[in-house]
Amino acid sequence: MFNFLFKRKISRTKLIFIAPDINSGGAENILFNVAKTFNKKDIVLISLTDIGFYGSKLKNDGYQLYPLYMKKNIFVIFKFIYLIILIFKYKPKIVHTWLYRANLIGGIAAKIVGVNKIYWTIHHDFEYSNLIRMLEMKILILFSYVIPDKIIFGSNISKKNHILNGYIKYKSIIINNGVSTKIFKPNLKLRRELRKVLGIEEDCLLLGNIARYHPLKDHETLFKALKILKNKGLNFKCILIGSGFSNNIKKFKERINFYELSQNLIIYGQTFKINEIINAFDLNILTSKKECSPISLLESMSTGVPCISTNVGDASQLIMNTGWTVKISDFKSLAELIKKINLDKNIIKIKSQEARKRVEVFYRLEIMIEKYKALYF
């Protein structure tokens, strides 16, 4: 673990990113895109657990990445000491931590070392999901006054709810998510090819859902809505993109069989080609119970795919008049809305252009990167 201490002296690093993992979530996607804009010699990435989905991509591209493989056992203290040693060795000008666990552990470690600037990033709505999270949040509220120089929130609602629950206000700023309009763009040729590969006829309504299989993503509401559509005889399929399906395959299959949706669902899983797959969609559906600023909505909108989302986080602000929102867990309204859209598919073409335009004006990746870079330089 400590072999690197005996290697040649390392020159001072501009920035260290610390995250719980660098897997395939929306917050990790933002970290991935921000990190890629830096010279490989100027940054170091530290994952508190394993390398993860996006971490593997960064490591393969030559970025310095240290996975600590922290677990909830007695050895965690040695991992924490190793983290302190890593920060001390690289002597960064800035430590930027990502998400609650890293804000706590990475923030304390950076403070011990005496790093000049420490930034926290929060891409959650405020939540007490269990007792451990509640205790963690109480500590983070207190430490928000003494550790970070800035707290960067991914949405207005996230900032508002954290401040209402005790987070320090004057350090809090918002940097909206952004996506690459060059990578996420409409491609009719690709759409035809993908639908052919997936066995989707042009008159079949293809619904997309980009979310890991987790209770907060509320696939149950999606399945209930799809069951209604099936019973009404709608010609549709729904493609599920994200992690967690294989890990929970028994439970997942039980739910599919319960709703009799095996012929209507396509389980795609994780992919780095999300920008290609979205082109096959007619609509993107998000049924989460909680979100901050869902990156999957922006990716779909940039690709010219209108979105239907539950009214969570900043979803309504992102979508505005380019798509639709429904109440959380309201599967009946969701099903009715999809049915109505299917009766007049011309509305999809109109909303498609509006969605793409909104991202180009307000949520381009370059706008987001410029705001992050302004913090660092």
Provide structural commentary.
- 44% of the residues lie in helices and 16% in strands.
- It is α/β, with parallel strands linked by helices.
- It has 2 domains: 173 residues, Glycogen Phosphorylase B (Rossmann fold), CATH 3.40.50; 175 residues, 3-Layer(aba) Sandwich (Rossmann fold), CATH 3.40.50.
- A 7-stranded parallel sheet has the order 3-2-1-4-5-6-7, sandwiched between helices.
- The chain starts with 14 loop residues before the first strand and ends with a helix.
Offer a few descriptive terms.
377 residues, alpha/beta, Rossmann fold, 6-stranded parallel beta sheet, globular
**Percentage of residues assigned to helices:** 40-55%
Poorly predicted regions are none
Specify the overall morphology.
Answer: globular
Assigned CATH superfamily of the largest domain: Glycogen Phosphorylase B
H/I helix tally: 15
Largest sheet: 7 strands, parallel
**What is the domain tally?**
2
Category by helix and strand content? alpha/beta
* CATH domain fold name of the largest domain: Rossmann fold
Please report the first level of CATH classification, the CATH class of the largest domain. Answer: Alpha Beta
